[in-house]
Specification:
By secondary structure, the protein is an alpha/beta fold. It has helices at about 15-25, 45-55, 80-85, 105-115, 130-140, 155-160, 175-180, 225-230, 240-255, 260-270, and strands at about 5-10, 30-40, 60, 75, 90, 95-100, 125, 150, 170, 185-190, 215, 235-240. The strands form 2 sheets. A 6-stranded mixed beta sheet has the order 2-1-3-5-6-4. Strands 9-8-7-10-11-12 form a 6-stranded parallel beta sheet, with helices on both faces. It binds 2'-monophosphoadenosine-5'-diphosphate (ATR).
């Protein structure tokens, strides 16, 4: 019988996960499909129960359910527990539901796919101190990157994150701008620049060192104003398509045991979103 997988969230209409997973199922000759399901906050518990009853083999979880779903799952992997956020659910052979989080490791994989370990052993600056910054910083630290500095519009949140990551520190945006040449890897995790809705850049890149890698986790638009500024200053770029593809690939691997082709998918998603391949 054909297996089926899903992504639940609110909103869910714009998700690119269904076409990505369906293509991987087809390429790997697996009889399976992946569907988007709109689930609002009040219906979450019933939705989890229904997915299980209706034989869903596994699903992704997106905004706003990444934390609230935890209470309805049977096991949470240690990384997702630390994050207090789940983006992937596996239905185990005994029927129990296990939650994990592939977002942070997805970023690390996308970085290394393009730049190898070039940024290891040098200081990392993370702009933003929300859920995305948290997941990425944990995964980077676990993979041996750092020390990590957080900078954020609200300094207090950056200071709170410092208590979670060994050797991390927090700086005001203006201070981070002044000391920018210290960092060989700079990662933009705020929503500034997303969908052209929040114009501008969260930090001025005037003092960047040449040869730095500048990443933005946003992928729509493919090249944010922040990445354009970095490009003008000769930085190597990484946009958010890779993180999106790799978080999905890690979920796919948990469900099927197969590592799908991420490079090909990254190119396809880039084409779908307008075709300017910005990473180099
Ligand atoms: P996510 O899960 O995507 O990280 P989040 O937890 O809501 O989302 O965090 C959003 C991040 O974007 C925060 O660091 C936020 O800064 P504050 O902590 O000061 O709110 C940052 N952010 C959002 N809009 C911003 C803006 N207009 N300028 C600067 N930072 C912004």
């Amino acid at each position: 019988m054909k297996k089926w997988y899903a992504v639940i969230g609110d909103p869910i209409g714009q998700s690119m996960s269904p076409s990505m997973h369906d293509e991987w199922f087809e390429k790997n000759e697996l009889a399976a499909t992946y569907i988007p399901i709109h689930v609002n906050e009040e219906k979450l518990e019933k939705a989890v129960h229904s997915l299980k009853c209706l034989g869903c083999s596994g699903w992704n979880v997106t905004v706003p359910h990444k934390s609230s779903i935890i209470q309805y799952l049977d096991e949470i992997d240690p990384f997702a527990k630390q994050m207090n956020a789940v983006n992937t659910v596996e239905v185990l052979p005994n029927g129990l539901l296990r939650g994990s989080n592939t977002d942070g490791l997805g970023f690390v994989r996308s970085l290394e796919e393009l730049y190898g370990e070039r940024c290891k052993g040098s200081e990392v600056l993370i702009i933003g101190a929300g859920g995305a910054a948290r997941g990425i910083s944990y995964a980077l630290h676990k993979a041996g990157y750092g020390p990590i500095t957080f900078t954020n519009r609200t300094l207090e949140k950056a200071l709170n994150l410092c208590n979670e990551i060994p050797k991390a520190k927090a700086l005001e945006i203006a201070e981070a701008e002044r000391s920018l040449s210290t960092y060989r890897l700079i990662i933009q995790t705020t929503s500034v620049g997303m969908n052209f809705a929040q114009k501008g850049v969260p930090l001025n890149l005037g003092n960047i060192a040449s040869g730095s890698v500048v990443a933005d986790i946003i992928y729509n638009p493919l090249k944010t104003e922040f990445l354009s500024e970095a490009e003008k200053r000769g930085a190597s770029l990484l946009n958010g398509t890779g993180m999106f593809v790799h978080q999905g690939a890690l979920a796919f691997e948990k469900w099927t045991g197969i590592r799908p082709n991420t490079k090909e998918m990254n190119e396809k998603i880039t084409d779908t979103l307008g075709g300017t391949y910005v990473n180099r």
